[in-house]
Amino acid sequence: MSRIRCIIVEDEIPAAEELEFLITQNEDFVVDAMACNGEEGYEMIMDLNPDVVFLDINMPLQNGVELAKRIHQESEDTEIVFLTACGMHAVEAFELNALDYVLKPVDEQRLDMTLDRIRNKINEAKKQADLPELMSKMMDRLEKKQSSYKKLPGELNGKIIFIDLKDIYFCYIEEEKTYIKTRDKSFMTWDTLCQIEKKTNFFRAHRSYIVNLDNIKEMFAWFNGTYKLVMDDSEKSEIPVSRNNIKKLKELLGI
């Protein structure tokens, strides 16, 4: 398991060494470097690209607030934890999207809370980064068995759920992402509508919708020769049917 890489930027050497000692009591953290002023810290951060920077607010040459702004301009993924002897800086810290702040002298229990927050933030970001690759691998395996599709994978709250085709009401595109709609939930998927259409017998009602015809409740004429389908989900969702697809729909429904 890769460790969480840290840099300490603190002009008081004893305080920096004490913080390094406390951080490295945790096996999943490592301190790559320490700097005693803002300019030196900036160069180290750009060179080493750490996961998190422990940053003193009051330093010579360049204070921590200005350095934090420069770091965020260069790397949005680097987390900032401010070190300060004054609690009044806490509001300013969070306005700069710092992950946390720690008062000096550092309290070990308070630091443990900060380290837990760092773990949670970095682990969640890693899960989100790994999820598309995991989904892609799963889809590759599933495509080898295209003739026997019975489920489609979808993501909800960081979990991959395998959804029975019969439980899918429709699939749709929203803000350039594809979603699977069941009776009362929506799951994001990395398949396109065209890929889902090939794996199922769902009907392409519209360029942004494909529909499981087994889960239609009713349909009605809309305007300019188009129709709408009312699904039997909990919201009674209305799905547009484009004019080019109406003839095929009526043939499938026998009307």
Give a quick precis of the structure.
The chain is α/β, with parallel strands linked by helices. The chain contains seven helices and 15 strands. The strands form four sheets. The protein has a five-stranded parallel sheet, with helices on both faces.
Descriptive labels:
Rossmann fold, 36% helix, 7 helices, 255 residues, 2 domains, OB fold (Dihydrolipoamide Acetyltransferase, E2P)
Written description of the protein model:
- By secondary structure, the protein is an alpha/beta fold.
- It has 2 domains: 4-127, Rossmann fold; 145-253, OB fold (Dihydrolipoamide Acetyltransferase, E2P).
- Helix content is 36%, strand content 30%.
- It contains 7 helices and 15 strands.
- It has helices at residues 13-23, 38-48, 64-74, 90-95, 108-143, 193-199, 243-253, and strands spanning 4-9, 29-35, 52-56, 79-84, 100-103, 151-156, 159-164, 170-174, 177-181, 186-189, 203-206, 209-211, 216-221, 227-231, 238-241.
- Strands 2-1-3-4-5 form a 5-stranded parallel beta sheet, with helices on both faces.
- Helix 2 (38-48) runs parallel beside helix 3.
- The chain starts with a strand and ends with a helix.
- The mean pLDDT is 86.
